């Protein structure tokens, strides 16, 4: 390897996913010179192997499921999905795994892109090893932001590598539908990919170690989604661990803790995430390689005055939208400190504090039915010491839900802080509820009093009328 040059910037960003892009966007908007280092595709996990391809796979699945419930439409929707067309649309949605458009955007904001693997090589210093083996040293006058994301966490099972298991990357980019698919896990990735591939023609067996699906949501969310998967033909087994996996003559064989053999063509492990910090030189600045990086609310790494960790790597909320929110906060804080302002030291709910991470994080699970939640569950609110009350409403009581057809089930819950009469959390499970969750996020983040929510009148007949039913439930009981 030969070193070609050394370049100084105000800010160096490791990782060009949505998080790194947004940090760069904010620091460039403030007039700071910014370098972005990326070893794979500009646009990151979300654009090519997570949010975008998974939702492209799921959209026709969920539309068909809705159509099959509507009189006058259900017969037309009885047939199978056009798998070739679905996969082709998915490929188009990911730009065929090419990042030309993302690179043009990065260039358009005036950031410099350095292709290659970036490693910290001391305080405020990053060494980039390019595809051709040459190295380049980048120095940061003010900040280095680690935005390298997370990767799939595989269990320690003997011989697992020989099985060639799917992770979320293979599950969202596969070019053929496996005849049989084992999905190990019960979280969002497992649930969404089981939904997608079952509908595309695979026979899915979902092996869930815990008691149910979506353990971080209200219990009824996982229950209703499990019912939906079972109704679609998937085999959902809870309380089931995997003790060994082999591939025999092309067939995957998973042995469960109960001694059962489950056979399939492919197996997807959706059993957690691990930070991509193992080979980025953390040891050169006194940090543990491969660790999650603790940060303050401005996303600055604990004990440092120049290193930031934004997005998945800080383990606050492993969600693209939350990472982008953190990136906007971090970019503003970096700029304020670099330009000598005091705003970065301001309190909560300012431009330089990721306060929403602590109790106003929204999430949507694109299953059938959809599940969406923001803030704290009832159990989490109680554990946090709040005096709360839950109000539950069935969507069958909402006129707008009836327009989604027959046989639909859904439920909403709001968790009310009875001392302050504000919302600590809201959960929806039902048709199209992903589009309801932002209103709930505004109510939770804004700490809108219930007395004021009465005057936010929902249009009739829409799903939003569930808010009126929830408020009535709190008032009348």
TrEMBL record:
Residues 361-467 form the Pyridine nucleotide-disulphide oxidoreductase dimerisation domain. Its cofactor is FAD. This is Pyridine nucleotide-disulfide oxidoreductase. Pfam families: Pyr_redox_2 (PF07992), Pyr_redox_dim (PF02852). GO terms for molecular function: dihydrolipoyl dehydrogenase (NADH) activity; flavin adenine dinucleotide binding. Keywords: FAD, Flavoprotein, NAD, Nucleotide-binding. FAD binds at residues 55, 118, 148-150, 312. NAD(+) binds at residues 185-192, 272. Gene3D superfamilies: 3.30.390.30, FAD/NAD(P)-binding domain. Belongs to the class-I pyridine nucleotide-disulfide oxidoreductase family. Residues 9-321 form the FAD/NAD(P)-binding domain. Disulfide bonds join 46-51. Binds 1 FAD per subunit. PANTHER family: DIHYDROLIPOYL DEHYDROGENASE, MITOCHONDRIAL (PTHR22912:SF151), DISULFIDE OXIDOREDUCTASE (PTHR22912). Signal peptide: none annotated. GO terms for biological process: 2-oxoglutarate metabolic process.
């Amino acid at each position: 390897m030969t070193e070609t040059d050394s370049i100084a910037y105000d800010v160096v960003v490791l990782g060009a996913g949505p998080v790194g892009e947004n940090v760069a966007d904010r620091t460039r908007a403030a007039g700071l010179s910014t370098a972005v280092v990326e070893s794979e595709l500009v646009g990151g996990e979300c654009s090519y192997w997570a949010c975008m391809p998974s939702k492209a796979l799921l959209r026709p699945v969920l539309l068909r499921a809705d159509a099959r419930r509507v009189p006058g439409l259900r017969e037309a929707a009885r047939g199978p999905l056009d798998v070739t067309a679905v996969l082709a649309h998915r490929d188009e949605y990911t730009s065929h795994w090419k990042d030309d458009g993302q690179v043009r955007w990065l260039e358009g904001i005036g950031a410099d892109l350095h292709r290659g693997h970036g490693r910290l090589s001391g305080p405020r210093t990053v060494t980039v090893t390019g595809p051709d083996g040459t190295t380049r040293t980048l120095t940061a006058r003010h900040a280095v932001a680690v935005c390298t994301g997370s990767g799939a966490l595989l269990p320690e099972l003997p011989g697992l590598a020989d099985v060639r298991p799917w992770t979320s990357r293979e599950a969202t980019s596969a070019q053929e539908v496996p005849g049989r698919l084992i999905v190990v896990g019960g979280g969002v990735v497992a649930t969404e990919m089981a939904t997608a591939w079952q509908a595309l023609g695979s026979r899915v067996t979902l092996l869930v170690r815990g008691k149910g699906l979506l353990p971080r949501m209200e219990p009824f969310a996982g229950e209703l989604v499990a019912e939906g998967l079972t109704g679609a033909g998937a085999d959902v087994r809870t309380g089931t661990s995997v003790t060994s996996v082999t591939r025999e003559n092309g067939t995957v064989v998973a042995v469960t803790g109960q001694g059962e053999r489950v056979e399939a063509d492919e197996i997807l492990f959706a059993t957690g995430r691990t930070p991509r910090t193992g080979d980025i030189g953390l040891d050169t600045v006194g940090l543990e390689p491969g660790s999650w990086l603790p940060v303050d609310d401005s996303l600055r790494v604990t004990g440092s005055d120049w290193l930031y960790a934004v997005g998945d790597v800080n383990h606050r909320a492993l969600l693209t939208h939350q990472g982008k929110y953190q990136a906007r906060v971090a970019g503003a804080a970096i700029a304020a400190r670099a330009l000598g302002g005091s705003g970065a030291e301001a309190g909560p709910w300012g431009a330089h504090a990721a306060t929403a991470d602590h109790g106003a994080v929204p999430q949507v699970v694109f299953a059938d039915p959809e599940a969406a939640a923001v803030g704290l569950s009832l159990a989490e609110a109680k554990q946090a010491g709040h005096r709360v009350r839950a109000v539950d409403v069935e969507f069958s009581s909402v006129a707008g839900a009836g327009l989604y057809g027959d046989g639909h089930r859904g439920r909403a819950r709001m968790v009310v802080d009875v001392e302050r009469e504000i919302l600590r959390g809201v959960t929806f499970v039902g048709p199209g509820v992903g589009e309801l969750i932002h209103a709930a996020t505004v109510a939770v983040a804004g700490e809108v009093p219930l007395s004021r929510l009465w005057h936010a009148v929902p249009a009739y007949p829409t799903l939003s009328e569930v808010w009126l039913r929830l408020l009535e439930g709190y008032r009348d009981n």
